[in-house]
Specification:
The complex is a heterodimer of chains A (561) and B (198). Chain A is α/β, with parallel strands linked by helices and 561 residues long. Helices cover 24% and strands 18% of the residues of chain A. In chain A, strand 9 and strand 10 form a beta hairpin. The chains are: A alpha/beta (561), B mainly alpha (198).
């Protein structure tokens, strides 16, 4: 059996694994990333400029085959398509089980870069409204950190990643180190002005996106082709491949090993440290072992937790670093599926320029200054405004040349808003190891038991109603309202299952993302989250990762690990 | 070959299911283009480059072709729905979809019956003036509201008009007519520029 030794081993090369690699190598550690999936070659694998008629199935895909091999992944219909399904896992090779009647949509990307290749790129800071929420509401456990602890790390990761956005001075959505904001369409500007006029408690801003609006750190500005989930040959949106992995590579202390499926961690009861990683080579299916002084789990929320659950020892029969019994529990996601849209009058002399890879954002206004009776926490809206084209006109009346000329004329402008709501951490939303059902590499899989509670359902109703009211106030006509809450997981913001906390008896990680039970083991992906807030979480994962790396290296130097 | 035909049927069926009710809003352009491509392949394989209807009878197909040409004719700026392959596109989708068969087949039947009542002959045997008269009646929903005996014809024509537009605007001719650029690189994001000159 081959054995290789490094200073640090990181599991996963997505958003957090990439950051850990950059930070640890730049701070002098000889670092290995173990990536379960294949290598990505942008020149070959990125397809954002391939015209639809150059695809075998003209973009419509081989749907029977997709349904057979990716029935779960294709729930992300807007991204897991003929172009980009290769960036999502094969569900047959990566099975799991949802509890009866509680479908959980587990969306995964196993390749170098992970889900950072296909992510939505929306990047928002948390505030103390979020970090203090559990304590104030008496829900779950308190976060062990506050905004002041993470603020400098937000600065740090934003300056490197490049986040375009507009400063607004909102306490619940702190401003960052922004590149110039993208422009709003004319109806978005109208809507923004109407909100300012009719509502004291709410406003609209352009989405804050990890997409470059000017040349930044050697990466080119966005060229607005608009299909980022197919890859970006100019590296203009933040991904591990475009940003952090090249930085790690530059140090000369970086190794990445694709096709390396981590089976479990090896715990040494004498030193009370993790000593190594058991790996299955995805191609040969042969076992391998790698050793290091410090370990970072960055495999994505549920994969990182699965590795710990599968690393049980006599001392930790229910999973490594699980003396608290909280490992696998408090699973969260953002609920979607409620919102409204409507026709916005005017602007017949303008057209939408449809390839902006970003939308608009209405920050949280519920339970910020006033208190809602119906639910705790709040939600934000993402959306956008554009103009109807031929397809809407074709449903109108007429015949002949006159009809032909009328259908290509652009139709009315429309604006849509969709909510992203906070989910509370419930102990009963959990995952457990299923030793009966194994994945393609013989590793036990997960049983996932997760459902929304009353708080999420009550909030979802308010999301729909408030969206309609704001559209009405902005003068929208023919408003349609929808409320059909998404299945947990489909927000692809799955969080929790190894929460941070102050007390080792009730949490898995401490304030530095370090496991209470093994000092040289860190988890910095979504697993660490103690609550979910309502904003997109990836920027917070980046900041927590950089912060944890800084701590780990200083502890290593003090011989505390 | 076997796999290809299964996958094609699957695609057409899925199209039909998702398209029920609101054809234009839910058929992705890519899907329609795929169907175009299949038709194109079949034409290339046929001896005289002609499309053999899969579902409609020869007389129904002639009616379909006439109606497509009337809905979106050729003009000085671009070709029409027939040149864009709309009749083939519609026939192919209908061959795999019982709902379309009912709506379009029933519509052709209604059209011939209505013309027999009014003019004493089936639609394709009518004079150009008679054809124009009946089509002008069913091309506008308000006529169906005024005269309930027209409502079935209006619903049929509206459905066929949607499908004709689908066929046209997913062809090369139709896309060019829209001045649609697709996912090509741009220098900057322009906000709200003026519409193109048609």
């Amino acid at each position: 059996m081959a054995t290789n030794t490094y200073d640090a081993i990181i599991v996963g090369s997505g958003i957090t694994g990439g950051w850990a690699a950059k930070e640890l190598t730049e701070k002098g550690l000889n670092t290995l990333i173990l990536e379960a999936g294949r290598t990505i070659v942008p020149e070959k694998d990125y397809v954002e400029h391939v015209p639809v008629y150059d695809l075998k199935y003209r973009g419509w895909d081989n749907r029977a085959e997709r349904q057979r091999t990716q029935p779960i992944q294709r729930e992300v219909y807007y991204a897991c398509d003929e172009y980009s399904s290769k960036f999502f896992v094969n569900d047959l090779e990566n099975p799991y089980t949802s509890a009866p009647g509680k479908h959980f949509s587990w969306i995964r990307g196993r390749q170098v870069g992970g889900k950072s290749l296909t992510w939505g790129r929306q990047s928002y800071r948390w505030s103390d409204l979020d970090f203090e929420a559990n304590l104030k509401d008496g829900v779950a456990v308190d976060w062990p950190i506050r905004y002041a602890d993470i603020a400098p790390w937000y600065d740090y990761v934003e300056e490197f990643a490049g986040i375009s956005g507009q400063s607004e001075g909102l306490p619940q959505l702190p401003d960052g180190k922004f590149l110039p904001p993208m422009e709003m369409t004319c109806v978005e500007q109208d809507f923004r002005d109407a909100l300012a006029k009719h509502f004291d408690d709410r406003m609209m801003t352009i989405g804050r996106a990890a997409v470059l609006t000017r040349v930044h750190k050697g990466r080119a500005a966005c060229h607005y082709c608009g299909v980022c989930h197919r890859g970006c040959i100019t590296g203009s949106y933040f991904s591990s491949l475009s940003s952090t992995l090249p930085a790690a590579q530059k140090t000369g202390r970086f190794t990445i090993r694709p096709y390396s499926v981590v089976h479990s961690l090896i715990f040494d009861p004498k030193t009370r440290r993790v000593s190594g990683v058991r790996v299955i080579d995805a191609q040969t299916k042969g076992p391998l072992e790698f050793k290091a002084r410090v370990f970072f789990l960055c495999a994505s929320t549920l994969e990182s937790t699965r590795i710990l659950l599968n690393s049980a020892t006599p001392e930790f029969p229910n999973g490594l670093a699980n003396s608290s019994g909280e490992l696998g529990h408090n699973l969260m996601d953002h609920h979607m599926g409620a919102g409204a849209g409507g026709e916005m009058p005017g602007h017949e002399d303008k057209m939408p320029f449809g390839n902006r890879p970003n939308g608009i954002y209405v920050p949280r206004f519920r339970n910020v200054k006033t208190k809602q009776k119906e639910f705790l926490r709040g939600y934000g809206y993402q959306g956008g405004g554009s103009r109807d084209g031929w397809s809407a006109n074709a449903a109108k009346a007429g015949i002949g040349v006159e009809f032909k000329n009328s259908i290509k004329m652009p139709g009315p402008w429309r604006l849509g808003l969709g909510g992203f709501g906070e989910c509370l951490p419930y102990h009963n939303n959990y995952v457990e190891l299923d030793k009966e059902k194994l994945d393609a590499w013989g590793i036990p899989t997960l049983k996932i038991n997760c459902a929304w509670g009353d708080n999420e359902h009550a909030m979802s109703r308010d999301i729909a109603v408030q969206a309609a009211e704001m559209l009405a106030a902005a003068g929208a006509k023919d408003i349609y309202v929808y409320q059909d809450i998404s299945s947990p997981g489909l927000g692809i913001h799955e969080m929790g299952t190894a929460r941070m906390g102050r007390d080792p008896k009730t949490s898995v990680l401490n304030e530095h993302n370090q496991t209470h039970d093994a000092k040289n083991l860190f988890m910095t992906d979504g697993a660490c989250m103690t609550s979910a807030a309502c904003v997109n979480p990836s920027l917070t994962y980046m900041a927590l990762t950089a912060r944890a790396c800084d701590f780990a290296v200083s502890e290593l130097k003090k011989n505390n690990l | 070959m076997h796999n290809e035909s299964i996958s094609r049927r699957d695609i057409l069926r899925t199209l039909a299911v998702t398209a029920a009710g609101s054809v234009l809003k839910v058929i992705p352009a890519e899907a329609a283009e795929y169907v175009h491509q299949m038709v194109h392949k079949e034409k290339a394989a046929a001896p005289a480059g002609a499309y053999t209807p899969k579902y409609f009878s020869a007389s129904q197909y002639a009616t379909l072709t006439f109606l497509c040409d009337t809905i979106i004719p050729k003009d000085e700026k671009s070709g029409g729905a027939v040149e864009a392959g709309a009749p083939e596109f519609i026939d192919l989708l209908t061959s795999e979809n019982p709902e379309y068969q009912l709506r379009l087949g029933g519509g052709f039947f209604w059209l011939d019956a209505a013309c027999s009542d009014r003019y004493g002959k089936v639609f394709m045997e009518c004079t150009p003036e008679q054809k124009k008269e009946i089509l002008d009646l069913i091309a506008f929903r308000k006529n169906g509201k005024k005269d309930p005996s027209l409502s079935q014809g209006v619903a049929f024509f509206s459905f066929l008009r949607n499908m004709t537009c689908d066929g046209f605007y997913t062809s090369k001719i139709g896309i060019a007519d829209l001045q649609y650029m697709g996912n090509v690189p741009q220098r900057e994001f322009l906000g709200c520029p003026p519409p193109p000159e048609f």
